[in-house]
Amino acid sequence: MRKRRLLSVLFILVLSLVLVSSSALAVSDAVEKAVNSYFANLPSDNSMIGQKAFLEKVKDGEDLVILDIRQPGAYEEGHVKGAVNLPWGPDAIPAALDKLPEDKVIYVYCYTGQTANQTVATLNFAGFEAKSVKFGWNLGISKVEGYKEAVETSATELGEVTDYKINEDIKTAIVDYYKGLEDVSETMFKNYMISEDMLKTAIDSDSGLMVVSIRRSSDFAEGHIEGAINIPWGKGMQEYFGQLPQDKKLAVYCYTGQTAAQATAGLRMLGYEAVSLRGGIGTPSNEPFGWTNQGYETVQ
After folding, report:
1. What is the torsion angle, in degrees rounded to the nearest 10, for the CA atoms of residue 173, residue 125, residue 118 and residue 265?
2. For the domain 45-174, what is the CATH code?
3. Which residues pair with 108 in a beta bridge?
4. Which of 161, 107, 97, 87 is nearest to 127 (CA)?
5. Where in the chain is the domain with CATH 3.40.250.10?
6. For 184-240, how does the pLDDT look when each residue is reduced to its tens digit (9 = 90+)?
7. Which conformational region is residue 140 in: left (phi greater than 0), alpha (psi within -120 to 50 degrees), or beta?
8. What H or E segment, with its residue span, contains residue 181?
9. What is the pLDDT of residues 39-86, one digit of tens each?
10. Residue 22 neighbours by CB distance under 10 Å
């Protein structure tokens, strides 16, 4: 109980510092078109690849472009063969945009898949074809039998600047997206995510934060986080983005945090103050993360 009261006090203090916008930021036509086009034409694989299928490609010696966005220490301990380290944060990913190939699929992995999916979304907005490795290193790659056969410790670097030119407005928006990580680095919204505990505190504190479920409507009907609205993930979901309030922070959740991370990236690029729920609603695949895996209830 004492811990819960402390969390409530912390939540109110931090929320007062970070809810600074009463309206969506100005967004260029190019950015709006790029984001909406992505969600209007979502690929059937949701811009993801299963960890087993990914490792098979690596073991088969395919010429892949792989980005490991974990921190340098984790990368140095062992990473997928041929992976380039672009640590998640304000600098590395935007600095590498000019060196990424337009004509090859870019595979991205992190620890559990959530920051990788944010990255994949921003890369797709920029015109690349990028896919995240499901559940990242900790919950995906390292759980595959024989994965160590595809692991090395020697570093790989990106090549020279390519001829592909990203639209300047889109590039600026992506740079700003990653730069914004500095602003939330010491808050409950670090990495543009919110923990299960903090979301529960927000709901109990009637903070005005809006919860957005992007799960299937049938699953939403069976059980959802109290107060949530439903915009099911899929082609055409962008048509509902404009109906979301511009003066509230949005907490987006899916099943495990993967697609919610992409939706969060899109909403933020459109100017909304959006964050994703770490671990989503929770499934056996991503325990102990997720709302229900943390013991919180849903409503019908």
Report:
1. 60
2. 3.40.250.10
3. 67, 132
4. 97
5. 2-31+185-286, 45-174
6. 999 999 999 999 999 999 999 988 899 999 999 999 999 999 999 999 999 999 999
7. alpha
8. helix 181-184
9. 999 999 999 999 999 999 999 999 999 999 999 999 999 999 999 999
10. 8
Please give the C-alpha separations between residue 6 and each of 2, 157, 201, in angstroms, as whole numbers.
6, 45, 10
Q: Contact at 8 Å (CB) between 280 and 290?
A: yes
Closest CA to 276 of 291, 286, 298, 292: 291
User: What is the spatial distance between Cα 171 and Cα 176, in angstroms, rounded to a whole number?
Assistant: 9
**Which CATH code is given to the segment(s) 2-31+185-286?**
3.40.250.10
Contacts of 11 (CB under 8 A, 6+ apart): 188, 198, 201, 202, 205, 207
Token output for 162: 């390519």
Neighbours of 194 (CB within 10 A): 26
